[in-house]
Amino acid sequence: MTGRTRLIAVTLLVAALAVVLALTGVGAERLLLLNLVLVYAVFAVGYDLAFGVAGLLSLGHAAFFGLGAYLLANLTLRAHWPFEAALLAAGIGGGVLAAAVGGVALRLTGIFFALVTLAFGQLCFILAGNHLRAWTGGLDGISGVPRPVLFGLDFASDRLFLLYTAVVFAILLLVAARLRASPFGQVVAGIRLNPVRIEQLGWRTNRFRVAIFAVSGFYAGIAGALQASLLFFASPQIIEWTTSGDVLIMTVLGGAGTLFGPVVGAAAFELLRDELSRLTDRWYGLLGLVFVLVTIFAPGGIMGGAGRLLRRARP
Amino acid sequence: MTADAALRCQALTVRYGRFTALDGFSYAFAPGRLYGIIGPNGAGKTTLMNVLVGGVRPSAGSVHIRETDVTGLRVPARARMGLGRSFQITRTFAGMTVFENLRLAAQASVFRRQPLWRSARTFPETAERARAMLATVGLEREADRPAEQLSHGDGRALELGLALMADPAVLLLDEPLAGVGHGALDRTTDLLARVSAGRTVLLIEHNMSAVMRLAETVLVMMDGKLIAQGDPAAMRRDPRVREAYLGSDA
């Protein structure tokens, strides 16, 4: 089986699994969880394009995620745009904002770049909560964000919305896979591995960095919009730095730099959050402990660890 | 000679505070010749190379590729104008195989023609060029080996292959023999001789026998200045060179 066939097979399998789960007897609370897994999987797959492929540690992706949520809320509720047009605008908005931030912040590298993105994200959080009330609803947020209606089919229930998110997830996963394997993706990976050599080969590294950061922002915008629709709500809390931290943890937990690692990481993170929060209010601390253990014993994340075990098991 | 120069620098000066790393260096490098640049540590050889490729902005002076002033251009723009470079410290793409390294480098000249939606693996042109370069630098048997697992000598060969992939008219080689063992020395020197044909090559190298064998003109630097230049035999006999670099008993 070639890599391409395997990719399509696994993507269709994940999407089909979501469809089966949506149509069969999964409980209502699990449907919300599964929806969240797919929404954050979209976020993490996009985040990994910047982090895992290009080596850009962003702590401000929550801003692109939040912009997507607010764009969908405003464009559907106030401007009465069709859901799909607003969803696309949310992605484009995330991408444009990421390109603008990247255009400035990517003059820096490493921890300095991470700190600038963190500061930018927190600035957006404060703006959304206190200074842009007319557009964001202030700390109360915007409620009543709609679900899509497509070809007469209303995706109002969590069960049907799972189908919708599964399709969006499958499309964006395949796009990410294609992008990573493309000549553009190879140059971006080369920039992570050796930027000096890439420049010496005639490529301007900053252009590629800004471009991949914008694509990553597009994914964040789409994910933020889907989450607002899922929860019928957009609030400034999703722009706080912890959202950027969460997507970073998901990516590293699953396996940064791999296509499916962020998907696995998003699923593991959301499942753990769901299970641990039933046991204790201090679930975030326990989640942190799991994260530390995984990074110590499986530096390549769950995918890396699983791959090692498989190689050992082979005769 | 100046009008026909492949690469020309005029009064290049680089200062770091009160320290002058390059001090009014001027030279016109003729097309198709191999220049050996020698001098003791701290003579300014690598600084010169960094200024020529655009990695360091000179405090004064200018650089021309053919007749175009490129002083204000950065590394990628100069690379696209045919200026290639191999580094003193091997700079390959660790994490990719040797073949993938060369295929990525082969993309540079055809990148704009490669559609975004196709996998980089599906372009026969870049794959063929990468395979041809594997043969040129003698790494066919290492094609599938991760670059970081190569021996030092093979790593240097890959470094050279990456620099050659764009078929540069002017090639700057910064100590390509550094750390290469005695067993691989002749092979690598032969390789340098082969790939230098038809190009302007600036070779910085501490291995004097290799420089004397390969270079048609030797430039001697000291304290950021060009102190002598001529054919290798003349440079061997030049008392300034003997005193400054080779030692009085050389």
Shape of chain B: globular
Major sheet of chain A: order of its strands? 1-4
Total number of β-strand segments of chain A? 4
Q: What is the helix content of chain B? A: 25-40%
The biggest sheet of chain A amounts to:
2 strands, antiparallel
Please mark out the parts of chain A with pLDDT under 50 across 5 or more consecutive residues, or reply none. Answer: none
- The structure class of chain B reads alpha/beta
Which class best fits the helix and strand makeup of chain A? Answer: mainly alpha
Shape of chain A: globular
The overall pLDDT of chain A, averaged over residues, is 88
Rg of Cα set of chain B: 19 Å
Return the string of H and E elements of chain B.
EEEHEEHEHHHEHEHEEHH
Average pLDDT rating of chain B: 86
- The CATH architecture category of the largest domain in chain B equals 3-Layer(aba) Sandwich
* CATH homologous superfamily descriptor of the largest domain in chain B: P-loop containing nucleotide triphosphate hydrolases
Percent of residues in β-strands of chain A: under 5%
How are the secondary structure elements laid out?
The complex is a heterodimer of chains A (315) and B (250).
Chain A lengths: L2 H21 L4 H26 L7 H17 L5 H23 L4 H22 L1 H4 L5 E2 L5 E2 L2 E2 L3 H24 L1 H11 L1 H6 L4 H27 L1 E2 L6 H14 L6 H19 L3 H15 L3 H13 L2
Antiparallel strand pairs in A: 1-4, 2-3
Chain B lengths: L6 E10 L2 E11 L4 E5 L6 H9 L6 E6 L2 E2 L5 H6 L2 E4 L11 H10 L16 H13 L15 H13 L5 E5 L7 H15 L3 E5 L3 H7 L2 E6 L2 E6 L1 H6 L1 H8 L4
Parallel strand pairs in B: 3-8, 3-9, 6-7, 7-8
Antiparallel strand pairs in B: 1-2, 1-4, 4-5, 9-10
Key terms:
heterodimer, A: 315 residues, mainly alpha, two-stranded antiparallel ribbon, two-stranded antiparallel sheet, 4 strands, globular, B: 250 residues, alpha/beta, Rossmann fold, six-stranded mixed beta sheet, four-stranded antiparallel beta sheet, 35% helix
